[in-house]
Amino acid sequence: MAKSGEHPFEQEIDKSVDSEQEMADKPVYERDYDRQAKKLQDKVAIITGGDSGIGKAVAVHFAREGADVVIVYRKEKEDAEDTKTLVEQKGRRAFLIETDVSINANCEDIVRQTLAQFGKIDILVNNAAIQVTHQDLTEISEEEWDQTFRVNIYAQFFLTKAALPHLKAGDSIINTASVNAYKGNKQLVDYTSTKGAIIAFTRSMSAQLAEKGIRVNAVAPGPIWTPLIPSTMHKDRTEFGKEVPMKRAGQPAEVAPSFVFLASEDASYFTGQCLHPNGGSVLNT
Predict the structure, then answer these.
(1) With 278 labelled, which of 53, 160, 199, 244 sits at a CA distance of 20 to 30 A?
(2) What contacts 78, CB < 8 A, 6 or more positions away?
(3) Contact present, 181 and 196 (Cβ < 8 Å)
């Protein structure tokens, strides 16, 4: 027991250590990884919704850091081919899979095709999503609600479950959420609900997989200028995003570095977390 006037933890301190040089177990300030030129050298990444928008930017940024990329897309073949070309211009391989991720069997097939093509999976980016604006909850049909959930969150469950047996310590799962999960959106009730579910899924899976050394994190972008926006919300980029402190929409290239960070060993002490490239919105996270 500590003597009167003595700090209660003082007796546990090794007073013989006055400097770092005297520490038996010294802190690590630089790893071998930190000296390599590319953060994702020879990794294999699956990216759903990789044909355009944030997914496209992530594919390009991953390739620049040395990864080969599986680009999963639904319909826009021309966009997907363009993403493939951009990846190959970085000197990496790209493999296209056209499929509907809302169906479990298709997600299982994505994993099978990836293993056949590249022999492994190191990074899974669950990014595919759909949204439709509505002014009133009564405008949303049961079928539309169900489809939004199947694409936005069921697909993350399906693909994560299919990929898990092939993931190992050091691998990474990154789920795309949204700023709307934290602040709500009265025009996107179903979409926003799925994004809240993604945050809960991310945190729960991170706890489940931490002992296996598999990290699970999320990115919650704010208003980002992608094809989804003019097709469902705003036609004019100059008006979209003005509500955030930076008074503008972000670009996919401004979001992709968050995915690179979380996929790499730079984020080796990050799991169950969410990054917020959102133009300055202050959220209760």
Answers:
(1) 160
(2) none
(3) yes
> How many separate domains does the chain show?
1
Measured CA to CA, the distance from residue 222 to residue 241 in angstroms comes to 8
Instruction: Look up residue 40 and give its two tokens.
Output: 């994702």
Given a cut of 70, whether residue 122 has pLDDT beyond it is yes
- The answer to whether 174 and 199 have CB atoms below 8 angstroms apart is no
Catalytic one of 73, 154, 191, 269: 191
The parent domain of residue 176 ranges over: 38-222+251-275
Alpha helices (H) in the chain, listed in sequence order: 53-64, 77-89, 104-118, 142-149, 155-163, 180-183, 189-209, 228-232, 252-263
CA atoms of 82 and 98, how far apart (whole Å)? 14
Report the predicted TM-score, pTM, of the whole model to 2 decimal places: 0.91
Residue 70 backbone phi and psi in degrees, to 5: -100, 120
Amino acid at 272: G
Instruction: Mark whether 191 is an active-site residue.
Output: yes
The answer to whether 259 touches 125, Cβ cutoff 8 Å, is yes
Each residue's pLDDT tens digit, 29-44: 998 898 889 999 999 9
Strand, coil or helix: what is 195? helix
Q: Residue 258 is part of a domain; what is its CATH number?
A: 3.40.50.720
